[in-house]
Amino acid sequence: MLATPEQLSLHKTASRGGDRQFSSQALPIPNLTICTLTLAAFLSSPVLGQLPGVQGIAEREIRRQELMKEHAEKAIASGDRAMQARDFESAFSYYKSAVDALPSGGAATAAVRQQALEGFERASLALARQRISEGRLQDAITTVNLILEDRYLPNSRAALELQKRLQDPTRFNPALTPQFIANVEEVKQLIIQAQGFYDSGRYDLAFKRYEQVLNIDPYNIAARRGMDQDRVARHDLVCAVEQILRRQPLQHHAGGRLERD
To answer: Can you tell me the distance from the alpha carbon of 49 to that of 67, in angstroms, rounded to the nearest whole number?
Structure first.
C-alpha cells in the first residue's frame, strides 16, 4: 500500500528529530568535576615534585627553617649565660630573638620555641624588677606588657601579678625617679665615709661629708645626728688638750719667756 503525502511528511520530520537526538548524544559536554579532580591529582603527583623549580623552592624553605632553628638555639645559650651573669637586659634580648625566629605552631621547632619562651619569661620578670629598683617604673611596665602580648605569653601568671602590682600606686611610688634613686645611693656612700672618718678621729673630714649629705637631702636625719656627734667629739678633744697643757709645769727661759715641758 502506497503512503499518502501526509504520511511521508510525518516520516521525514521524525527522521530529522532522531538525527538531532543522536548528534547531541555523540558529542557530550565535558564534566567540570572530572577535570578538576584530574588537575588536582596531577599537582599532587610525585612527578610535579621532581620538577627543578618546585624542588628548589622546597629545599630552600627546609634550609631556611634549619638556619632559624640553629640561630634560636645559639640565642638561648647566650641568654642562659647572661642570666647567670645577672645581665638581665642582654638575656631579655637573646631570648626574644630566639622566640621571634621561630613561628608558633611549627612541629619541628615547638620544643626549641617553648624553651625560648620560658627563658624570655624569666628574663622579662627579672629585668622588670631591676627597673623597679632603679626607679624606672615606666620601663618596668613596658617590659611586663611585652611578655603579655598574644605572640608571647598572654597568660603568664607571674607577669600578670607583677602588672597588677605596678598599677597599684600604694605599692610603687611614682615619685621614685632614677635621679631620686641615684641621690639615695650617693647619700648612703657619703654617710659611710663620714662614719669612717669619725671613727678614725678625722672629725673635720667627717663634718664635711655630713655637709655634702645635707646639700643633697636637707632633711637627712642621719647626717644631722652625725654632725652633732662630730661637734661633741671635737669639743671633747679640745678640752682634753687644754687639760693636758694646764698640767704641764712652766719653765723660765732666758729673755723672760715661759714654756711648758
So the answer is: 23
